[in-house]
Design a protein that fits this description.
single chain; alpha/beta; Rossmann fold; six-stranded parallel beta sheet; 12 helices
Length: 310
């Protein structure tokens, strides 16, 4: 399949989304922003009839694969306008599904071909499973103070969503080992935070380009996933592609090609005893096949594998 035969329709509302869109376009794909075809009204997603007219059967027929990100209403509109013998249409669920969101979308989603990166959601809802994906840098950026004299730095940035207690525990454990902690937790309204944590509790997050620079200038990426999530995150892939160590509470990563005990530390009971040895161990580059599994090209190919349409 040629990249020119792929159409992706997804958000473009922030720097992270635009980073992905730009990388996809650089690969030769067509990327259209969902905002061209829908708008938010009273908290609901409403399609825009005039703008939808450009998505004619003739226009859509030039694509062999159309991937729509998390918009079931638009999926059903497109489904009526494609020839399924020529064009594959899939709905990609890029986030784990919460109950409130699912209740409002369940009738539509039952009529879509749903794919997800999370094995729990795949099993629970009968969806198809694909890998998470990222874009490898052409060359590894050189970290400032790469001679190691400045000591280790751990970076973490996310929205709270219940992550605060574990992030605080991780941060304090790292600092006790002499690791500099570049942490940013975006606060939630009405939640109380300890006064001593004011320096790293923020009201807004980092733009993605700045976020990526913090990743590059760190030695260790720290993530806290939501309690039931088992799918690999973009954060974990950033760590792999930029050759950073990873500390995560996602135990499922042990069963993936990303895992190497020198590179990944699972945050679980008793883990702090293992932290000094983990910090001292040298990063171990992964086999090329492991990285290729999580590339954009591999992600696209998985949608078209024999049996994927069953």
């Amino acid at each position: 399949m040629k990249m020119s035969e792929v159409l992706l329709i997804k958000l473009d509302t922030n720097g992270f989304e635009r980073f992905y869109n730009r990388k996809m376009q650089e690969c030769g794909c067509t990327v259209l922003p969902i905002s061209d075809f829908r708008r938010e009204k009273y908290g609901l997603s409403v399609l825009r009839p005039l703008q939808l007219r450009q998505l004619t059967p003739r226009y859509l027929a030039q694509y062999r694969l159309i991937v729509l990100f998390e918009e079931p209403a638009l999926f059903l509109y497109l489904k009526k306008r494609i020839d399924p013998s020529r064009t594959r249409l899939v709905l990609w669920n890029w986030n784990i599904t919460n109950r409130t969101w699912l209740r409002g979308n369940a009738p539509l989603r039952r009529r879509c071909e749903n794919w997800t990166f999370d094995a729990v959601d795949a099993k629970k809802f009968g969806w198809k499973l694909n890998e998470q994906f990222y874009f490898a840098p052409e060359t590894l950026p050189v970290r400032e103070n790469a001679d190691g004299k400045a000591g280790l730095t751990a970076f973490s940035a996310c929205v709270d969503k219940g992550r605060y207690p574990m992030m605080k525990e991780m941060r304090e454990a790292l600092r006790r080992q002499g690791v500099a902690t570049d942490f940013c937790l975006v606060s939630e309204p009405l939640r109380r935070y300890a006064a001593e944590d004011a320096a790293w509790i923020k009201t807004k997050g980092l733009p993605y380009e700045e976020f990526l620079q913090h990743t590059i200038q760190s030695d260790i990426v720290v993530e806290v996933v939501q309690s039931r999530q088992v799918g690999i995150t973009v954060r974990a892939l950033e760590a792999m592609f930029y050759h950073k160590k990873l500390i995560t509470n996602n135990a499922a990563i042990r069963k993936t090609p990303l895992y190497h005990p020198c590179n990944v530390l699972i945050w679980e009971p008793g883990v702090q005893e293992k932290l000094p040895a983990f910090l001292q161990a040298a990063y171990q580059p992964l086999p090329e096949a492991a990285e290729k599994r999580y590339t954009f090209a591999a992600w696209l190919d998985n949608f078209l594998q024999p049996g994927a349409a069953d």
